[in-house]
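Researcher: Please generate the 3D structure of the following complex. Treat every line as part of one assembly.
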Amino acid sequence: MPSVALPAMSARRRRRPAELDPDNFGAAPPVLATIEEGAHLLRAAPTRGWAFYALGTVPFVLGFLWFWADMSRNVNAADHVVEASLGLALLFVWMKAWQAAAASEWLHVCAGAPAPPWTWRRAMRTLAFQARWQPLKVVLLPLAGLLNLPFAFAAAFFHHLSAVGDGTQPPAEATRRARLAARAWTGQNFRSLGLVALLSAPVFLNMFLVCGLVPILADSFLGTQGEATRNAAAYFFNTTTLAAALALAHLVLHPLTTAFYVMRLFRFESRRDGRDLLRVVGGEPSEARQPGRAGQS
Amino acid sequence: MTLSVQRCALHPAREAAARCPACGGFFCRECVTEHDGRVLCSSCLRAAAKRPESKAGPWMRRLAGASGRALVLLASFLVAWLAFFALGQFLVRGPSVVHSGAMWGGKK
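Model: Done. Output below.
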C-alpha cells in the first residue's frame, strides 16, 4: 500500500525544536544492558552516595511503617492523623532531598568526574528544588499510572529530577534537562518499568515470607512466643505485615531503579555533549569506577 | 529563502549577514549590533533601549520572585500532606477485621 503523506502532521513535526524531535534522540540503549550498568554503578559507587541514600530513605520507611501501623491499629488515631500526615510529608521531602544528593553523586561517578563539594548553600538549593517538585510525585505518579500512557514519562521525569536537581544549576535548567531526558526513548522506558514490575513480584514475595517466617523461626529456636505463633493467619495477612513487606521490597528495588535512571540520563546527555567519550579521553579512572564502560556512544 | 541570497534591507547592494530576531528583517553586518545576547537591527535596538525599566527596584523584584517560589513550594508540600492525610483517613476508616487479619480466620 503506498504511503500517504500527512501534511498536518509533517508541518507539526517541522515546527518542533530539533532538541525535542525524537528522530534526534538516537537509538535507545538496550534495557537489560542499562539495568546491568545501573547495578554495576551501585557496586562501584563510593560509600558517600549510599550514606546519603540511607540517611534519607531509612527514616521515611520507618516513619511510613509507624504511620501505617498507628493509623490501622490505634483506636485514637483519628485524633492525630493531621499531625502524623504532616510528619510523614516532611519525612518524604527529607528523603527526596537526600536521594537527590545520592543520585547526583552517582551521576558524577558515571561521568568519572569528581562531584562538586556540598556546601550549605548547595544543600539548601537542593532541598528547595526537591521540595518544590517531588511532593507532586505522590499524586501525579498514581494518576499517570491510572491513565497508563504518561506513566513512563512521569516516572522518568521525577527520577531525572532527582539526579539533576542537586543545586549546581538554575532550577529552570534542571527541569528542562529532566523533561528532555524523560521524553526520550519512551519504548525503552516502558520496557524497563515492565521489567522492574516483573522483578518486584518475587522480591515482594520474598520479603513477605521473611516477615512471616522470622517470628515463627524465633519461636522454634528460641521459644519466644508472639502474635505470629499464637495466630499465624492473622499475623501473616494483617495489613501492617503487608506494608512492611512492601517497604522492604521498595528498599531493595528503589536504588536499582534510581541507578537505572541515572545511567539513562547519562547515556541520553552523552549523545549531545559526548560526556562518556570525554571521560575516556580525559584519562581513565580506576576500573572499578567505570559503570558505563560498555556501549559508549 | 536562505540568508545567503538575501540583501540588506537598508543597503540593497550588500549581502545580508544577519537576521534581526525582533523584526525578522535581513541586514548587513554594519546594520546590526549585539545587545543583551541578541543581534538586533538599529530600529529594534532603539525600541529596546526606550523600553522603560520595571518600576520595582531590584530588591523588590527579588522579594517578589522569592515569595512566588515560596508559595509554589508551599503549595507543592500541601499536595503531599493532603495525600498522606487521605491515606491516613483511609486507614483509620478501614474495617479493623481487615487490618488485624481477623477476616482470614484469626482473632480480632
